[in-house]
Amino acid sequence: MKAFFLNFITTxxxxxxxxxxxxxxxxxxxxxxHYFGTKGRYEEVNPHxxxxxxxxxxxxxxxxxxxxxxxxxxxxxxxxxxxxxTKNVRKIAQLFDxxxxxxxxxxxxxxxxxxxxxxWYTEDMxxxxxxxxxxxxxHLAMRLAKSFPTLITADHLRANRIxxxxxxxHRCVDSVKAFQEGLHRLWDVQxxxxxxxxxxxxxxxxxHCEKFVEGVENNKTALKEVQRFKSSSEMDxxxxxxxxxxxIPYDRITADMAEAAFFLCSYEFAIKSEYSPWxxxxxxxxxxxxxxxxxxxxxxxxxxGHDINRxxxxxxxxxxxxxxxxxxKDHRFGEVKKTATIQVGHGETxxxxxxxMGFFKDEKPLTSENFALQRKRVFRSSKILPYAANVVLxxxxxxxxxxxxxxxxxxxxxxxxxNHAAPLYERVRKHYSKLLHGCDFNKECDLPQLNLRNTxx
Length: 457
Ligand SMILES: *[C@@H]1O[C@H](CO)[C@@H](O)[C@H](O)[C@H]1NC(C)=O
Ligand SMILES: *[C@@H]1O[C@H](CO)[C@@H](O)[C@H](O)[C@H]1NC(C)=O
Prior knowledge:
Blueprint: H1 2-25, H2 58-61, E1 69-78, H3 86-102, H4 109-116, H5 131-147, H6 154-158, E2 162-166, H7 170-187, E3 197-198, H8 200-203, H9 205-208, H10 210-217, H11 224-230, H12 233-246, H13 255-272, H14 284-301, H15 307-311, H16 314-333, E4 340-345, H17 347-356, H18 381-384, E5 390-398, E6 401-408, E7 411-413, H19 425-431, H20 433-437, H21 441-445, H22 452-456
Parallel strand pairs: 1-4, 2-3, 2-4
Antiparallel strand pairs: 1-5, 5-6, 6-7
Family: Belongs to the histidine acid phosphatase family. MINPP1 subfamily.
InterPro entries: His_Pase_clade-2, His_PPase_superfam, Histidine_acid_Pase_euk
Pfam families: His_Phos_2
């Protein structure tokens, strides 16, 4: 009896220890989740939302001082969490096929988990918004209403003083609808006919800027730093580690496959909140290398790398300031007609705009050779551009004049080279005066008209 009891206790204890060990071994958040870049969850930049998804830190979104009152807001918001694009579904399938067929030698339970993993991504998912992505926008809407309680209200909504605009892409249209659903949940406004309009010249300006399309998007040499980094010693070492973990020859693990594993971990986590066995293919230093590879791409394709990347966002820049100007004018002569604009677009919409306005500019460019030097860079898409990333500009009337504040992901930012979180609007206009009086889309984006007939002569 005693022996049985002891036996029972030890079995019980080992089960409990085993359970807590497996809990330790399988954290719910992958250690590499902070490096997912544009495939990261919004919660990674605002971790308090994990406890309460509607929590608003009032001290962060309060007016700059007690004598200030918000009169207008413009927000540019990235779509929410989405499925992989067709291109990435193919890369994931390639990686999975390789692991299934080639990684036979080592029979660990982890490898078995990889092999029995079920490929559920299909090409027709094509970057569509997922349910979590709808939630991203529903909840963001509710928080923004709470953050700016005089601008986003049921009355303003009913009176059409809030304008909704989106890119034509399905994930953006679905995001703006989810945003409206969030407001509807708050107020249940009856007989409300929710409207939005599509404007790609503002939300997908990059497609319409010829000089960008030709000079960067369709130009392989424009992204040569990204290509070079793929064959860097840093990337080699990531591939070597993956090769040894999988017991698959190094030459079969390409940089694209390493990236596919990274994406797979990020998608499983962002879409399903699952800690996937694929995450264990990479350690933290591998993730830093892959994060840098993505940042290099963003830098050269959407950021400071080429001047035209930033300049292509001129139409959106002008649109935002004309909305602020109109609100300022309305305010001077009476009632502000519009209180808020919600503009839904892409990471590719936000990053050129932030770059045009001078945010997140490092002293030295990001190149294939300075990974170590750029360890502390400010241009880090994991921090700037998770799903549902948002830039919000708020205009305030204060006793000493109009002031403006810019929030990124619901946190106030200091305007670059103004050293102030809520400068006078006049000062902001002066600071950007070159852009406000120039930054002409046609002038920046039109290619010189080559007269082919003449060159033939
Ligand atoms: C709210 O923001 C302030 C900084 O403005 C910070 O000190 C504080 O910890 C934040 N509170 C929470 C609960 O996140
Ligand atoms: C392609 O990019 C390279 C490097 O930025 C540049 O020198 C070249 O002029 C570009 N080509 C075109 C057709 O714009």
